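your task:
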Amino acid sequence: MNPVPLLDLSMTLGFLWSRIKALISPKISLLSVLSLISMILAIPVTAYAATAPKITAQPVSTTVTAGQTATFSVTATGSNLFYTWKKNDVAIIGAKAASYTTPATTLADSGAAYTVTVKNTGGKVTSSAAILTVNPEPTPTPAPPAITKQPTNKTAIEGTTVKFSVTATGSGPLSYQWRKNGADLAGANLSKYTTPPTTLADNGSLYDVTISNSAGSVTSKTRTLTVNPAPTPTATPTPTATPTATPSATPTPTPSPIPPVTETFMINFDGSQLEWDIYLPSSSMPAGGWPAVLLIHGGGFHGGGPGAGTEVANDLAAAGYVALSVTYRLAPAPDGVTHELITGQLDMYLDRKTGTFPDQTDDVGNAVHFARTPPPTSLLFGLVNGQVGAIGSSAGGSHAAWVAAHGSLDDDRVNVAVSLSGPYDYVDFDDAWNPNFKANLLSYVDVPETDTEALKAASPAWADLAGISPLFMIASLDDPMPPRQIPDMVLKLVAAGVTNYQQLVIAGGRHGYDNWSQIDIDGVAVKTKALEFLAAGFAAAP
């Protein structure tokens, strides 16, 4: 017969023993009673003893890279086992399982010896030492430079400066060397290069930049600088303040607007002349000059002109801004035949239709540049303070959003923008709402509907929006502009972590500039909200 452990008998006979002990002397031990029962039943009694642990699989030395963790484990036989891991003979707090995982290792941990002691009531045993080897992190292979945004051609009026820029990726540090006509430019070692004041001798000069690091170098595409003669200045209307009336109960009348003056501010390399109508405030000029606000007309990218924004321009001038209603090259009409042209614009230039993307955004970007830093020959010289905003209608609203997201704040990016019924995402056509919308977009970008990458490249919504200037988007409920355009842009702004934007959708079905004087549901005019947004944007500008 197999021996029966004392503990098992105690468990099965516990109740019986309590009854026997109550009937006989309490001095009689349980073992005596069990021995008696064993004699009667011929069951041998053995004392319970746990089996001492035995290690069947030792911890194994391991090698890791600095920053990684290491895991050691042991396998042992026996019951009721307890584990204590040690590092270099020092117990590790909390390491009480059959395996142990280190914290993230450092090079200082290399060579450490890990052991584990396994014990129970029957004894204990200590494992052999497992050695931890920690190797340094491998030096990453440096990435050679790669250009993600090439420099662009530049046009200037003699006496002004221009800025070339390039964007590149690659392992740092990156070094830059700009060249003019193949010769290194001294001190031109940043991602941006600003020329000295240009002369007519600089016309046709070629610029490129080489970007280098320890892994190699790459040279940008060559870009051309076009320098046009300074336009002959014309008479500038002298801004005057309305005489202050003797205080009385009669309210002071609003100052009468000064009639606009037209100026050609730039001639493109293809001969097209860019103009703006200048609306000056009638109030006294503050120290440093007034902020300038571009008015960018709509017209489906292929029509319209600066006269459409007269009411807006006069309101801006009355609010203390220099309003500049600009022209830009126009794209072919969707019929593929009609092509309205601005002054000097050619139908074709270098085997391509003019006015298609990026001609229009280039023109508006150049308008921002010259409004920010007009040359001495410009009518604006000495009248503006270097801050530039934009208000755009329809297609012009898209261009206003574009110059809020592209360029640089010290050059061709506006400080604040308002878009009235602007399109933002050129791959969301929404044919059911307005079938003309797609036709106008495809004619402007000059690609088929299937070329989504080209359409995205021309879309404000698909730009890098992380640094966008404050943008106010306005439309009406039944606006001919597809209603998904504002939500499309908002989704992109939110994804980029942008918070400096507002959106407003008012009742009715007006479009573009026609929304300017409408009254919102709260009784406040759209133009009041737009002017407040402009003022806040200029105040927050660096």
Q: What stands out?
A: Residues 1-13, 43-47, 233-254 have pLDDT under 50 and may be disordered. The longest strand covers residues 384-393. The CA atoms of residues 310 and 325 lie 8 Å apart. The radius of gyration is 41 Å.
